[in-house]
Design brief:
Layout: H1 3-25, H2 41-52, H3 61-64, H4 72-81, H5 85-90, H6 92-99, H7 107-116, H8 120-124, E1 147-148, E2 158-161, H9 176-179, H10 189-195, H11 200-214, E3 221-226, H12 229-240, E4 244-247, E5 257-266, E6 273-279, E7 285-291, E8 294-302, E9 309-318, H13 329-334, E10 343-346, E11 352-356
Antiparallel strand pairs: 1-10, 2-5, 3-7, 4-11, 5-8, 6-7, 6-11, 8-9, 9-10
Length: 358
């Protein structure tokens, strides 16, 4: 056999082995677009979307940006490590850096985050429903425009736009095989604290997220906390079916300033929606829920002087507030009480609204 034929045979063998590796490590890959490496968790998330969502629309860029940067080989390697606390502790800094997680935070980090980086959505659901533990939730003075009434949601209305920037630390989702191996329960807080080398102050914020995820659903609410793109897709399609699409606020332009409302459209005729809000945790964690009598609107946001469009936002309308906590800050802001008023609020840059595709 010639050296040329040997080289060709070797190349064919390498190709066959690569395809075999893909079929084992990343099953059900449908297609990978652009320059995406087919052996990454991000590529698998894309293929998962294409298999489980039938609307025929591309996955949200904002959601894909949050996918795990790990390769399949790294997922397999770290899958073995997370089973051994001693080895994980020794390699935690490497793991957190490669997976884009939030680790080794201390009291100084806590003070900085308390003063500037804990967003409204972090506390929102701790006081969302009656009977929740409200003693640790200090709202302080809410920015103007955080909550508003139906009468304000009309074209031509001049409003003060609240801060849209999500100031929580930038992190990524973990692939589902890794998430399933890491403890996630308030009763295991001590173990979680040790895994991520978190100080007492920081771990108290982790507990807040865990408590939020463990709250019982309100009447008419379906909820789940998700830590992977696959889990978010599964929850949204479980509630809404496979013909879904993601709506988000385009950018943060207009934050903390006067803006003019342009065209307003209720999404999907006001039918069911799934809203997902980011929580403070070592890896990216979202509280996703569908609440009865909740509708989502798309709103063009204009510069009040030039009338040019500067943003395209999402507004959520809670029609029935009877099950809300009387201490929910919206009632103080709007001068009302549960069941006696509707509540509208905007969405920050990292909120997701899943709706049935039109």
């Amino acid at each position: 056999m010639s050296s040329t034929s040997c080289a060709a045979s070797s190349s064919q063998l390498q190709l066959m082995l690569s395809l075999l590796f893909v079929s084992i490590i990343i099953p059900n890959v449908i297609c990978v677009t652009g320059d995406e490496n087919p052996l990454t968790a991000k590529a698998y998330a894309l293929s998962y979307w294409e298999k489980h969502v039938t609307a025929g629309l591309p996955i949200s860029n904002m959601l894909m940006e949050k996918a795990s940067p790990l390769t399949s080989a790294q997922v397999a390697e770290y899958g073995k490590i997370v089973d051994d606390p001693k080895v994980l502790s020794e390699r935690l800094r490497e793991f957190c850096a490669q997976a884009n997680l939030m680790c080794f935070l201390n009291s100084a980090d806590y003070q900085r985050m308390q003063s500037s980086a804990i967003s409204l959505e972090d506390n929102f659901y701790c006081v969302y429903r009656k009977g929740s533990d409200e003693k640790d939730n200090k709202w302080g003075q809410l920015p103007p425009g955080t909550f508003f009434r139906e009468a304000m949601l009309k074209p031509g209305t001049l409003i003060t736009m609240p801060e849209l920037t999500d100031k929580l630390p930038i992190r990524s989702f973990l692939p589902r095989p890794l998430v399933s191996k890491i403890p996630f329960a308030s009763q295991k807080l001590s173990e979680i604290k040790n895994i991520f080398h978190a100080g007492d102050d920081i771990s108290s914020l982790f507990k807040r997220a865990l408590d939020t995820c463990e709250l019982e659903a309100m009447p008419g609410e379906t909820k789940r906390c998700v830590a992977s793109i696959e889990d978010m897709i599964d929850f949204a399609t479980f509630v809404l079916g496979k013909n879904v699409v993601i709506r988000t606020t385009d950018n943060t332009v207009g934050s903390n300033s006067k803006v003019l409302l342009g065209d307003i459209k209720v999404i999907n005729g006001g039918k069911s929606t799934v809203l997902c809000h980011q929580q403070f945790y070592p890896y990216l964690l979202y509280y996703c829920h569908s609440v009865k009598n909740t509708h989502v609107y798309e709103v063009d946001i204009l510069d009040p002087k030039t009338k040019f469009k500067i943003n395209h936002g999402i507004a959520t309308y809670h029609e029935d507030t009877a099950s809300f906590s009387p201490k929910h800050p919206a009632f103080a802001a709007l001068g009302s009480s549960p069941g006696k008023t509707e509540i509208y609020h905007g969405s920050s840059q990292n909120d997701f609204a899943w709706v049935i595709a039109d």
